[in-house]
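Model it.
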Amino acid sequence: MGALTARTHLLEADYLSIYEARSRCEFKAALVRSARKLEFSIVSTTVFFDHLHGPHESIGVSNTPTDYREAFESTSNGRIDPVMQHCKTSGLPIVWDRSTYVHAGRVAKWEHQAQFGYHCGIALASHLPRGRHLLIGVNRDQPLPRNSTGITRMTASLQLFIAHAEEAAARVLLPKRPDESNAVALTPRELECLRWTMEGKTAWELGQILSIAENTVVRHPYSATRKFDAVNKHQAVLKALRLGIIE
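Modeled.
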């Protein structure tokens, strides 16, 4: 596969193919296709559900090699995997390789998974409301780039990757819920701010467009985000699009 190049990136169509997936098969195909464009051969997306009593539940999709799938999906895997342990408590990406497992005293774990293509990778978790957590990992059997620019670009792509995957995962992996659109009532100003956010405008630019103070602008997307039970304004935009509240 070769070393990751700084030119490798995803296009808007790649993100949309993830976001618009209507079934597990479509979702998996879009994830695998996008991961390979980023020069990663293995990708997994898993939603974890916390429970007050008893073990957590999980559901996901991946192209994990068949011979490693049972070990990968076992509950004990998460307890001993330092990458999984990081993602349980942090929303920051983790760039990992053999040294991550050596530092955690889990080199035997790395040596086992490396046989199946899990040499190194990047993982990122999104901690959602109501005790849900979405974990995305991309993995490869070739070294990651040594330059920080390549890693930074890859991580930025993965963060957009997960923002779009959240909506698709909710649609194809999570239990069906009643239509949310009737429960979300946005003010005209909140709608306007979401529309401009969708166009990529910053809070400062919104203030200039709407002729209001920047600190006032910030409150409207924040309020819309809370109403949608979203983790940030970008996810709120995606939910508004899915529900047809904005176009």
